[in-house]
Amino acid sequence: xxxxxxxxxxxxxxxxxxxxxxxxxxxxxxxxxxxxxxxxxxxxxxxxxxxxxxxxxxxxxxxxxxxxxxxxxxxxxxxxxxxxxxxxxxxxxxxxxxxxxxxxxxxxxxxxxxxxxxxxxxxxxxxxxxxxxxxxxxxxxxxxxxxxxxxxxxxxxxxxxxxxxxxxxxxxxxxxxxxxxxxxxxxxxxxxxxxxxxxxxxxxxxxxxxxxxxxxxxxxxxxxxxxxxxxxxxxxxxxxxxxxxxxxxxxxxxxxxxxxxxxxxxxxxxxxxxxxxxxxxxxxxxxxxxxxxxxxxxxxxxxxxxxxxxxxxxxxxxxxxxxxxxxxxxxxxxxxxxxxxxxxxxxxxxxxxxxxxxxxxxxxxxxxxxxxxxxxxxxxxxxxxxxxxxxxxxxxxxxxxxxxxxxxxxxxxxxxxxxxxxxxxxxxxxxxxxxxxxxxxxxxxxxxxxxxxxxxxxxxxxxxxxxxxxxxxxxxxxxxxxxxxxxxxxxxxxxxxxxxxxxxxxxxxxxxxxxxxxxxxxxxxxxxxxxxxxxxxxxxxxxxxxxxxxxxxxxxxxxxxxxxxxxxxxxxxxxxxxxxxxxxxxxxxxxxxxxxxxxxxxxxxxxxxxxxxxxxxxxxxxxxxxxxxxxxxxxxxxxxxxxxxxxxxxxxxxxxxxxxxxxxxxxxxxxxxxxxxxxxxxxxxxxxxxxxxxxxxxxxxxxxxxxxxxxxxxxxxxxxxxxxxxxxxxxxxxxxxxxxxxxxxxxxxxxxxxxxxxxxxxxxxxxxxxxxxxxxxxxxxxxxxxxxxxxxxxxxxxxxxxxxxxxxxxxxxxxxxxxxxxxxxxxxxxxxxxxxxxxxxxxxxxxxxxxxxxxxxxxxxxxxxxxxxxxxxxxxxxxxxxxxxxxxxxxxxxxxxxxxxxxxxxxxxxxxxxxxxxxxxxxxxxxxxxxxxxxxxxxxxxxxxxxxxxxx
Length: 952
Hints:
Blueprint: H1 2-7, H2 12-23, E1 29-33, E2 39-42, H3 44-50, H4 71-84, E3 88-95, E4 101-112, E5 118-127, H5 129-151, E6 155-159, E7 165-169, H6 171-175, H7 179-182, H8 193-208, E8 213-220, E9 226-237, E10 243-252, H9 254-276, E11 280-285, E12 291-293, H10 295-301, H11 311-315, H12 320-331, E13 340-348, E14 355-366, E15 372-381, H13 383-405, E16 408-414, E17 419-422, H14 426-430, E18 435-436, H15 437-441, H16 449-462, E19 464-472, E20 478-488, E21 492-499, H17 501-512, H18 525-542, E22 545-553, H19 556-563, H20 565-583, E23 587-593, E24 596-604, H21 609-622, E25 625-627, E26 630-632, E27 636-643, H22 650-666, E28 672-674, H23 677-698, E29 702-711, E30 717-728, E31 732-734, H24 736-739, H25 746-769, E32 776-780, H26 791-801, E33 809-814, H27 815-818, H28 823-835, E34 839-845, H29 851-857, E35 862-865, H30 867-870, H31 877-892, E36 896-900, H32 905-913, E37 918-920, E38 928-929, H33 933-939, H34 945-950
Parallel strand pairs: 27-28, 30-32, 32-33, 33-34, 34-35, 35-36, 36-37
Antiparallel strand pairs: 1-2, 1-5, 3-4, 4-5, 6-7, 6-10, 8-9, 9-10, 11-12, 11-15, 13-14, 14-15, 16-17, 16-21, 17-18, 19-20, 20-21, 22-24, 22-27, 23-24, 25-26, 29-30, 29-37, 29-38, 30-31
Helix pairs in contact: 13-31, 19-20, 20-21, 23-25
């Protein structure tokens, strides 16, 4: 090193002379510079390599041939060495004489005099380009290998020759074991206890006789569950045959294992079904004429087991009226319908002459040339089902009204025969009634048939299923359907299917909405709001009037339901065109959503501008329009507000027009209402009521009153409903008829709900401590309360604080809650409560739009029949039919049914005869304060004693 030469007594001049004397004789690039970094020498090898002009590198010119991206780092290292006197070392790219840049390793050391001062720097540049290329390739290879491992669905592992795991890629994310835990033999702790001995034995056999191997076992995952994995291992051997290392993969096969288990169970069920359900099997070899039947086939036909089988054996048993069609379907070698067919007919048994109904299914097997060679099928006695059809027909009639209102139908499928019985209104919804399942499946949209197939499989194998799919009606209309089903005893699946076309259309509408409404082309709410802000600002500044009209179609839903969504859409487009034509270029028309439109006119010349415009709108809309050869009319309600006459703030102007529209609809619809201060005063009164109610909640004058619920069969009190009451300091006890509208206010409704739940829990604690048996207490929850994400946790916390068992508590919700925009959120909260043991009741059942849908969509345990159906039960046959239908549906779905509003013994007796479980109403007691409940329970006697016997 130059530094050591100087220390040995040579001067810097001597070192320089020696250095330059051999610099041009060696195959390396040599250079030197002064203490301040000024380069004064570069050997010939350096110039030959770079192709630079002679003396071009003198001074600081050496960095001119350095790659621009490397200059900053090289200069930083060089400055550091000059500042500290430490050796210099840097890797950078030099421009080669070919024009390419090549990697070099530059090094330099300082030569010092006897006093330690730097006299000169001496350095070399060594070509390392090939080594850098090799290093980059290796890094790329390692990166590629790591990416392949990460992208692969399988985990990778390495083990030592004696079987101890060295490293595992992906094992930690699955099992949760850290490397310290799974390395060596620690991984076995994550293997399912039932699989460990088997896995260990496989591993020992491979170690004893090194060869590739594989096995399946279960692994405990991070969440505590066990999943199936497939493990493969391969020994890497040295030249002498010894194992250098074991490598392997671990692949998740849990879904495949589950599918295999489902298939095994399905095959076992089929075998048992054929042997236990009495289904007969028949087989005909068309080529040889050989025929064979199972014993069940002979038993169904009433034939001896050894009866000779000829072509007429079966036809002789078919009822004469069905024989011609049966022959066309089953005796010909190839029925015109194709290879698969089924037929329901009557037979006359050979032994006793009894007429029975059977379903015969068949399939023709063809050879590679399409020629029929064999026919095979089943026969099943369905007489009892046919008889039950008649009984079910009466039940379906009772259900028809309720089902029709919900645009849904109930159905029941016989798994063995694949025959589906549907409620009558399925004809209106689907275009088909009861019949073979295949008749329905053929009309499922081709793109959605796999969804329906999964639905059937899940219903059979897992016991329940839910799906949404498109259906092609016979008239060509495509609708969306949702189905829910559960498997029941007796090889049946029961379920409901309902029309969700409107919901799907709404979802699609939301996705397509931007500044303009996609259906009408009008500005939507967002764009209209911007325009409203501009017009109101101008009117306020200039004093010129502007007018806002909010327009709402009357009876729009009825047009949709009666004539379909196409008619409704056409109506909206016609209305949009007429509104635009009425206002002309002097205003803005927008569709705010649904059947709600807005019209904005600036620079109105008179105060009557809005009213005059509204009258023209009404006249324009009243003109009939024709759609698909049907004449339709448009009726609308209009609310008007003006700026600056009524309001000078855009949001307040909208509120004013909305109040006017609300008044127009409340007064009978199809009218025009102009905003007045009276409407705003009413709103102010509402605000005042909210303020007073907040004080009542704080002072705990909002209390629950309790109305008992009674078992109709035994007369026993089975629970109470907690009803909100206001102990008003001046007006006495007030019911929700006075303050119920406040439940529409989010904050107020939540405060009231918390107060009632807390008070009810406190009262229940008192009753329990005093030893009273009061059953279950139900509390109503409003839509606003479900806006609280932690609602379920709040309720459970209150019950826990009071030490109230969850089975003592019930939540009642109305269909208005379930029909809200946040129905998925509501469903999640109800399922959370239901999972904690709290009963869920559907209140006022039958008064909403989609009651039956909710019986399957939400975790409902209890159905309460609305008092409006009970009131005229003894005199109105339609009310009786609806009540009977709801009771039958509830009992069929294993739901508890309670009738509200019972006021007479006759109503109670009739409900018991119809199968209703419980009752509630003034016949038993009016709502009472908590302090009166113990006395009521002490005085209560099963009422009346004879009613239980009447229902037996």
